[in-house]
Design brief:
313 residues; 7-stranded mixed beta sheet; 4-stranded parallel beta sheet; 10 helices; 19% strand; elongated
Length: 313
């Protein structure tokens, strides 16, 4: 099945803003790619898929940028790309608000920008490719309801404040559980998408509770894996649900350490974003403004559906 076959288009084709550059007819292109931090396995995979897609398309020089989990660093990288007059930018913004000025500057300078995974606020980019993170949070909630039909006490490990996936995944959880008395969040705290913080926050939360929760739900796999370490060290029986379907998380699902993770096809997002950028630059083909895929829960029962299953040891 192709990535397009797995995609769900949710917005019609739209006219690109007048300030976006006219199509580049030259065969050779220079495209800047930027992710929030290559310290996270999720973004390493995304960057690798961007490069792989560019190599397959041919005639493309990729200028890779590591945001290093810093909005000023990612901003400086975008500004440098503008000065260097790259043909296009494919990026995942660290913070949807903080990165808006730099992205707006690129668009105003006639450089088309496509965002992936994370969106940017109030800037008319060429297109966005991502997952419907609200529905991803709702998928986590639906699985919790299936596992605990009579109700559950839950710990919610939230992602990095200001990051659009963190906001949307949390919204999805609350869309389902708000107003349901049987399902209670006994703690909600950010662990910034980081494994060490996931472990330390989990340890602190568990120490403050008289009774262990039924579920720990995390906005990404790194936090879930950190929580898993603590739960296993304490010999507790707590369902843990992550998000991103990293190979390590898939192995933990297979082996029983994690209950589930949420698949959002980051390779599909990256490949289609690069293909759309190159088609626009070379042929003038305008992509749909918004392309989203609907995440789904991966458990032992459907592990074969995971995008990165082949990377398991």
């Amino acid at each position: 099945m192709t990535y397009f076959a797995r995609m769900r288009f949710v917005a019609p084709f739209a006219v690109v803003a007048a300030l976006v550059a006219a199509p580049v007819k030259a065969q050779d292109l220079t495209i800047m790619t930027s992710v929030p931090s290559l310290g996270f396995p999720f973004f390493v995979h995304m960057e690798n898929e961007l490069k792989k897609s560019a190599e397959q398309l041919g005639g493309i020089t990729i200028n890779t940028s590591d945001g290093q989990n810093s909005a000023p660093k990612q901003t400086a990288d975008i500004e440098a790309a503008i000065v260097n007059a790259v043909d296009g930018i494919v990026m995942s913004p660290l913070d949807s608000v903080a990165m808006a000025p730099a992205v707006r500057q690129a668009v105003e300078q006639g450089i088309p920008v496509i965002t992936i995974d994370r969106s940017v606020a109030d800037v008319d980019v060429l297109a966005h490719f991502g997952a419907d993170n609200v529905k991803g949070g709702e998928a986590q909630a639906a699985l919790i309801q299936k596992l605990f039909p009579d109700g559950a006490r839950m710990v919610n490990l939230q992602g990095q404040p200001g990051a659009s996936p963190a906001i949307d995944r949390n919204k999805g959880l609350h869309n389902i559980f708000d107003g349901m008395e049987a399902y209670v969040f006994v703690a909600e705290q950010t662990a910034n998408f980081a494994r060490e913080e996931g472990a330390s926050v989990t340890e602190a939360v568990l120490a403050g509770l008289d009774t262990p929760p039924d579920v720990i739900v995390a906005a990404n796999d790194d936090m879930a894996l950190g929580a898993m370490q603590v739960v296993q060290e304490q010999g507790l029986d707590i369902a843990i649900i992550g998000f991103d379907a990293l190979p390590e998380a898939l192995a933990a699902v297979r082996d029983g350490g994690l209950t589930a993770t949420i698949e959002q096809m980051p390779g599909g997002q990256s490949a289609q974003a690069m293909e759309a950028m190159v088609a626009y630059l070379r042929e003038g083909t305008e992509p749909a403004k918004l392309t989203l895929l609907e995440p789904f829960a991966v458990t032992k029962d459907n592990l074969d559906k995971a995008e990165r299953l082949g990377e398991l040891n």
